Amino acid sequence: MSLFSWLLPRKAPTLSLAQQQRLLQLPKPAELAEHTLRAQRWVVVDLETSGLHLNRDQVLSIGAMVIEDGAIDLSQAFERTLLRTDNPLSPSVLLHGLGPSAIAAGSDPAEALLDFMAFVGDSPLLAFHAPFDQHMLTRALKDSLGDRLQHTFMDVAALAPMLCPQADLREAGLDNWIKHFNLQVEERHNASADALATAELALILFNRARAQHLDSPLALQQRLNQWQRRKQTHSF
Fold first, then answer.
1. Residue 40 exposure: Cα atoms within 13 Å on the Cβ side
2. Name one GO molecular function term (predicted).
């Protein structure tokens, strides 16, 4: 395989008739609304990937939790390992516990992604360092389904310093915020565990948002956009 083969245009994925029908039946994403944060169903997602290269590495597993009615609904949990046997495993795969046997037992990427998007429904997505997850999921959907990701992603890594400036943890990772709020996290570095930890952090941040009179998904996103623009302006 050429070193630069990842730059070449990819062939359109071949889907079965059943997969095409499932794709057409997926709900369209809803726009962020002005109802309360508690009334919004959120899907908290974490991806494990073969590396951190945005255009060369691949999604290996997806973990997701649901926040609904102001709480984490453990009955609505999602976890899939995507079958990726055509590529060599990097050290990061082994770090996340995804060795050859786990990959071999995984699902077909198209089926796994169809399952995930059906699980998401029309809900907005939350992730820690969301731009990375959003980019990788967008690529995976395009490569495996020929579909576009149109759902709203909100970045918990940006919400935390915006809503908790006194913590002085502007460039902190998830572990830093877990320690800051004394969250009891038994496991880390797999998709489901990280999604659960992110969901617990998000609930704390939603409480902080309400205390700051930001009690709707739309208001929270608008404030976050303003905060990020100011941050970019001050960085120059």
1. 27
2. nucleic acid binding
Global pTM? Answer: 0.87
For 24-71, the pLDDT digits (tens) are: 999 999 999 999 999 999 999 999 998 888 988 889 999 999 999 999
Adjacent-strand bridge partners of 67:
42, 72
DSSP for 145-210, please give it.
H-----S-EEEHHHHHHHH-GGG--TT--HHHHHHHTT------SSHHHHHHHHHHHHHHHHHHHH
Q: What is the pLDDT of residue 232?
A: 82
Tell me if 59 sits within 8 A of 82, measured CB to CB: yes
Judged by phi (left if over 0) then psi (alpha if -120 to 50, else beta), residue 126 lies in beta
Per-residue model confidence (pLDDT) at position 102: 55
Structure tokens at 211: 């205390």
> For residue 151, is pLDDT > 90?
yes
CATH number for the domain formed by residue range(s) 40-234: 3.30.420.10
For residue 69, CA distances in Å to 60, 103, 122, 172 come to 30, 35, 16, 28
Tell how strand 153-155 and strand 59-68 pair up.
unpaired
Is residue 137 within 8 A of residue 47, CB to CB? The reply is yes
CA distances from 30 to 10, 104, 124, 150, 203 (A): 30, 35, 8, 9, 21
Beta strands 71-81 and 59-68 are antiparallel
Main-chain dihedrals φ then ψ at residue 60, nearest 5 degrees: -105, -35
d(CA 231, CA 236): 9
